[in-house]
Design a protein that fits this description.
CATH class of the largest domain: Alpha Beta
Strand content: 15-25%
Structural class: alpha+beta
CATH superfamily of the largest domain: YebC, transcriptional regulation domain
Shape: globular
Strand order of the largest sheet: 3-1-2-9
Distance between the termini: 18 Å
Radius of gyration: 18 Å
Number of strands: 10
């Protein structure tokens, strides 16, 4: 089970969804603000903002909270400067890790991320050291337990810009270029297909198989990075056997 497409499921299986709602809203508020600063307030012309609004609604964020974040991003007088950064590093077993950060304090963010790596058997790496191992892609995952099939997904996906549709056993996964995200999402929504994961992710070109102590520590590293206030997304190229993963996440 590889890190690029299963981490969101792992988080839910560990029962973190409710406890992390406040932290998730903080990340989404920053994404709303940055999206407006970069592309304006019209979600029909700013697909990043439209996605941020959809994600915020899915996280049950109150409408007035979303509106304040959007207005903050549009305000010429806003004093907060938010920088988008990517930190690179290695986890246990040589797993490559990319950490996306949105921050108003670069020193704090770097210190927080470095501390997590150091405490969980990893290490920070120089810019470019691991980024080449990933490709930025639109990514959708549909759980087969809902009755969806590869054939149904493929029929919609390939007509709307998808590059690849793969049956992963318990899910059907779709990859495409980032620019195709909104077109695909609209098409899936129209067809009544609800994705368990719909996002733009850094997909690894190859994975690193880990087990035992390395696997347990890698999950801890991902979890603690996710808990950092400034961290928006974490990507990694680990691969853990499904049976072992179930055992590790059950606790």
């Amino acid at each position: 089970m590889s890190g690029h497409n299963k981490w969101s499921k792992i988080k839910h299986s560990k029962g973190k969804a409710d406890a992390a709602k406040s932290a998730a809203w903080t990340k989404l508020i920053r994404e709303l603000t940055v999206a407006v600063k970069q592309g304006g307030m019209d979600p029909t012309a700013n697909f990043r903002l439209r996605k941020a609004i959809d994600d915020s609604r899915a996280a049950s964020m109150p409408k007035d909270t979303m509106e304040r974040a959007i207005k903050r991003g549009a305000s010429d007088g806003a004093t907060e400067t938010l920088d988008e950064l990517i930190y690179e590093g290695y986890g246990p077993g040589g797993v490559a890790v990319l950490v996306e950060v949105t921050t108003d304090n670069r020193n704090r963010s770097a210190s927080d991320v470095r501390s997590v790596f150091a405490k969980t058997g990893g290490s920070m790496a120089a810019s470019g050291a691991v980024a080449w191992q990933f490709q930025k892609k639109s990514y959708f995952s549909f759980e087969k337990s809902t009755g969806i099939t590869e054939e149904k997904v493929m029929e919609v996906a390939l007509e709307h810009g998808a590059e690849d549709v793969v049956d992963e056993g318990d899910s059907v996964d779709v990859k495409a270029e980032p620019a195709a995200y909104q077109t695909l999402k609209d098409a899936f929504d129209k067809a009544g297909f609800k994705a368990a994961t719909a996002d733009i992710l850094q997909i690894p070109q190859a994975t690193v198989k880990i087990s035992g102590h390395d696997a347990a520590t890698m999950l801890k590293l991902m979890e603690r990075l996710d808990e950092c206030d400034d961290v928006q997304k974490v990507h990694a190229n680990f691969d853990i056997d499904p049976a072992e993963l179930e055992t590790l996440t059950r606790g």
